[in-house]
Amino acid sequence: MLPRDDLLVGCGQPQELAALIDLAEQALRTWEPVWSGFIPAELRELAQQRLGSLAEVRLLGAGGWPQAERQRLLLRRQELAAAEDTASSIDPPLTGLLVSGNFLFDPAEPADVRRGLLAAGLDPGELGDIWMRGDRGAQAVIATDTAQHLVGLGAQVRSVTVQLEPVPLDQLQWPASRSPRNLTTVEASLRLDAVASAGLGLSRNRMNELIRAGAVRINWQVVTSPSRELHSGDRVRLEGRGELEVLEVQPTKRDRWRLQLRRS
Question: What SS3 class is residue 210?
Fold first, then answer.
């Protein structure tokens, strides 16, 4: 048995981590590798920190593409994990999904698509990353076992009726991969909407809308107040548009703020 109490002490997501511990114990008991459902990046980081330190268990994440935020974890005995194993050497149970509809007059964000798919009956653990493809709809990564239930299924995303079509991963048009880059901006305040607008390349009005809609997280926590102040070390994430890390904050002689940011 794994040291469950020690692994869970001080954990901010005890139920979610406990479910992963159950899977790890199953993998140890049966000697069979086990895949989790899709989990968010903050839980994956926590699992890697807590379970990854155990000598008996090996973890490997897969989300379909290198910068995937939501991933499935492969849990297995250390003895079964070859040292050269990588995500590319294992065939994860992932499939692509086309979400087709006309969003010309009602633009949507990935969070809108996720809500629509969940309302159509998908489980959160069956849904990986989602990204928009202009006004034609969206694409997503889903669990392979889910694909057969989605053929011909319709869903509603905002005011748009969409059609769902499972496809192999290699038929997806992946989001453009971004290499991390540093940037400097000078702002009148440390407000979330001002800094995120400058760092992520969106208008301040649009950023305000996304924040109030719950699409923005700071250090993995959803924040709905545009006036929330940022500090050095904060990580701001907008689904489908990447992450912004505040590296340094310095006051200027004109009562403004010079920020060093890293966008990835």
Answer: helix
